[in-house]
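seq:
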Amino acid sequence: MLVNSLQNDIENSVIFLSFSSKIKSMEFEEFVKAAFVKMIYEVIEADGKIHPAELEILNKLKSVIGFDDAFLKRARLLEYDNALVTLYNLPHEQKKALANILDDVAISDGAIHKKEMDLIINTFINIGLGEETE
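struct:
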C-alpha cells in the first residue's frame, strides 16, 4: 500500500512538471484564470469526493497560474456557462493547456471517475476543443 502511494506521488509530480512549464509561459487575464480555476474545481468535485491529491495539484497550480485562496473562492462562484463562454473564446494553445490540466486533475487520485470523464468531455465539446486544427 505504501509503495502504491509513493508511486502515485511520483507520477503526480511528473505530471505536474510536464504541464507547469508550458502554462507558466502563458499570460492569462483575470477572467480567464477564473474560468480555468472554475473548471478545475468542477472536475475536483465531479465524483462527489475531494481527494487530497486533487487538492495538491490545485495548490501547485496557484503559483503556476497565479491565484490565491481568495481568488479561488471567487472563481468557484462563477457560473459554469459563463466560464464555458470565456474558454470557448481562448486560443487553441490555451484550450490545450486547460485540457492537460483537467486530465491531470482527474487522474491525480489514481482513478478517473465516470462523472469526471463526462464533465471533461462535455467541457471539451462546449469550448470547441477538437474543432480547430493544430
